[in-house]
Amino acid sequence: MKYLKHVFGTVKKSSPILYGIVLIHLALATACFIGFWVDDRMLMGLNVWVKPFKFSISGGIYILTVGYLITLYPYGKIKKNIINNLTSFTLLFEIGIIVFQASRGVQSHYNQSSLFDGLLFAAMGLLIGVNVLLMLLFIIDTIRLRLKTERAIQWAIVMGWTIVFFGSWVGGQMIGQMAHNVGVTDGGEGLPLLNWSTIAGDLRVAHFFGLHAIQIVPLFAFLISKKTTITYKQKHIAVCIFGLLYAVWIGFTFYQAKQGIALIQF
Which residues does UniProt call coiled coil (predicted)? Predict the structure, then answer.
């Protein structure tokens, strides 16, 4: 808990605006959670507020992660502010569209049922595109610059950003086919809350784990760095093995989904 408190405190001090947008995401998640209990409208087999609830939490975690990691880069104040603002405001508008469409009881993604819905979906694509470019910037800068952290953690951040970039590419695959399921129409039987298909392939699995690599891989490296009983070289090896295994897992879930096979079948 003290580490989480440290992350929030660092982000709040470094970028109050970004910190405020993280809080907005948490407030939206709370509102969506309440909506789940008071609004019984269903969309594609799920309550309309489940999706914005998940995206609010995921978006808030991502923005908080960027807000903290950027403090490790030797960037000037202006560059930090530009990246922080681009990340937080683009994702705020993104979640705003998702919440808005949920309030109307219609799909936010792959919705081309009207010109208005199509324009909103296109706008979401542009907003995410900005963040994908920022991910690419982070990959390059993490390789070429010396971050204010241990080498093993820096290497984990490189691997994390690279896997996230692949996870975003999976998102592009879903846009390409205008659906997240493979083998069946979207909206069939799925896991509770996550709604990942239990009868066919679902590209959201690889997308989800891919996007959260930037939290999971560096967190592993951070925990390893606290182990004073292993050497500097052993830390590097452990981080590399973990990052590679995690990448293999993403590749496996992507391949499995493309074959039309569910992650978990009932």
Answer: none
Nearest CA to 220 out of 152, 165, 138 is that of 152
Q: Return the DSSP state at 70.
A: G
Q: Helices 213-225 and 204-211 meet at what angle, rounded to 10?
A: 40
DSSP string, 187-245: TSSB-TTT--BSSSEETHHHHHHHHTHHHHHHHHHHHHHT-TTS-HHHHHHHHHHHHHH
Digits of tens for pLDDT over the chain (266 positions)?
Answer: 778 899 999 999 999 999 999 999 999 999 999 998 999 999 888 899 999 999 999 999 999 999 999 999 999 999 999 999 999 999 999 999 999 999 999 999 999 999 999 999 999 999 999 999 999 999 999 999 999 999 999 999 999 999 999 999 999 999 989 899 998 888 778 888 888 999 999 999 999 999 999 999 999 999 998 876 788 888 999 999 999 999 999 999 999 999 999 998 76
Residue 203 Cα to chain centre, angstroms: 14
Are 183 and 262 a contacting pair, CB within 8 Å? no
